Automatic annotation (TrEMBL):
Stated name of the protein: aspartate transaminase
Keywords annotated in UniProt: Aminotransferase, Pyridoxal phosphate, Transferase
PANTHER family: ASPARTATE AMINOTRANSFERASE
Aminotransferase class I/classII large domain ranges (all copies): 32-392
Originating organism: Lacimonas salitolerans
Length: 400
């Protein structure tokens, strides 16, 4: 009899973390490594947010708080939803957790039973399916291909829904593709959901403020108010506010669901870090001008990477609407060989061989449910990105 839980056998470690760890090991061994695998901004947390964290320590805010968030932060989250999304919530409808991942996990654990299905567009964030499996549910995937700009259609969503569907798990702008749904595109999906009242919507809006060019962010309950009572809207401060290590995520939704999530959190981690909550309060209530400044850098980096990759024969890289990722197809490289005879028969082989040969760390597309492709995070310096693209170009140019 195995000592470990059978539940654990249903999931796998995060491939993005695995690639980051491998890159770190090579760097520690003296290799010249450029890691483009981790999804976090390279900008420092803004000064006024850092100052709020320090002030919280000095003021003695270092003890336990309410399980799912201090009242002031919950009110700031309500204000944010009203200000940015036109959604009205009370603090009792808000949950604050240790990052967006915990909030999503709490919701799935609190709602899924054996046989329940969760519809997830692919490519997807690597943790979605495994969290569903840990909660005892079954992920059901819809392929969002390059031909449709990595977006699913209403017909695809309609076909994926069954009587066992409990959640539609949605993410825009997307990790890993950066694809963003317009109001009309999202309205087509919400029209489908209106025909299936047993299906709830879990929307991951973590990249809401990282939207570029003419793209305008919108969220399901905003587009279709009739879904308000069936939607959990998840967000956080990690990406737009450069606070990945502070670990604060939040969600708003139906009060019974929030109460169930609170019960889950009370028996797992209890409250998020008290200091981080006060910093998040400053982030939501304070100046936001730095976001536009950061986004100008992200657009410049995006264009640098997209143009460089599209100049490489065998690679096709669309220009995303948001987030800080690109998801280039390498269909034109599959089946080729390196000079030493290593065959590139999958995107995992591509990423592994690329790292070993050039020191550039990317994440292979199979980890996100759609191959053959790879993900680059361009949340790093222009110089590092230019050098990485040069190395990728040289590597691909040697394939035969």
């Amino acid at each position: 009899m195995s000592f470990l839980s059978q539940t654990l056998s249903r999931v796998k470690p995060s491939p993005t973390i695995a690639m980051s760890n491998k890159a770190a090991e090579l760097k520690a061994a003296g290799r010249d490594i450029i890691s483009l695998s981790a999804g976090e901004p390279d900008f420092d947390t803004p000064e006024h947010i850092r100052a709020a964290g320090i002030a919280a320590i000095e003021a003695g805010h270092t003890r336990y708080t309410q399980v799912d968030g201090i009242p002031a932060l919950k009110q700031a989250i309500c204000d944010k939803f009203a200000r940015d999304n036109g959604l009205d919530y009370d603090p009792a409808q808000v949950s604050v957790g240790t990052g967006g991942k915990q909030v999503l996990y709490n919701a799935l654990m609190a709602t899924l039973n054996p046989g329940d299905e969760v519809v997830i567009p692919a490519p997807y964030w690597v943790s979605y399916p495994d969290m569903v499996l840990l909660a005892g549910g079954q992920p059901v995937f819809i392929r969002a291909t390059l031909d449709n700009a990595f977006k699913i259609t209403a017909d695809q969503l309609e076909a994926a829904i069954t009587r066992n569907t409990k959640w539609f798990l949605f993410n825009s702008p997307s990790n890993p593709t950066g694809a963003g749904y317009t109001w009309d595109e999202l309205k087509a999906l919400t029209d489908v959901l209106l025909r299936h009242p047993h299906v709830h919507v879990m929307t991951d809006d973590m990249y809401e403020h990282l939207a570029y060019d003419d793209f305008r962010f919108c969220t399901p309950a905003q587009v279709e108010p009739a879904l308000y009572d069936r939607t959990l809207t998840v967000n956080g401060v990690s990406k737009a506010y450069c606070m990945t290590g502070w670990r604060i995520g939040y969600a708003a939704g139906p009060e019974p669901l929030i109460a169930a999530m609170r019960k889950m959190q009370s028996q797992s981690t209890s409250n998020p870090c008290s200091i981080s909550q006060h910093a998040a309060l400053a982030a939501l209530n304070g100046p936001h001008d730095f976001i536009a400044e950061n986004n100008r850098a992200f657009v410049r980096r995006r264009d640098l990477v997209v143009d460089a990759l599209n100049a490489i024969p065998g690679i096709t890289c669309p220009r995303p609407e948001g987030a800080f990722y690109v998801y280039p197809s390498i269909a034109g490289l599959i089946g080729r060989q390196t000079p030493d005879g290593t065959r590139i028969d999958s995107d995992e082989a591509f990423a592994t061989t690329l790292l070993e040969a050039t020191g550039v760390a990317v994440v292979f597309g199979a980890a996100f449910g759609l191959s053959p492709a790879f993900r680059i995070s361009y949340a790093t310096s222009d110089a590092a990105l230019a050098e990485a693209c040069n190395r990728i170009g040289d590597f691909c140019g040697q394939l035969r």
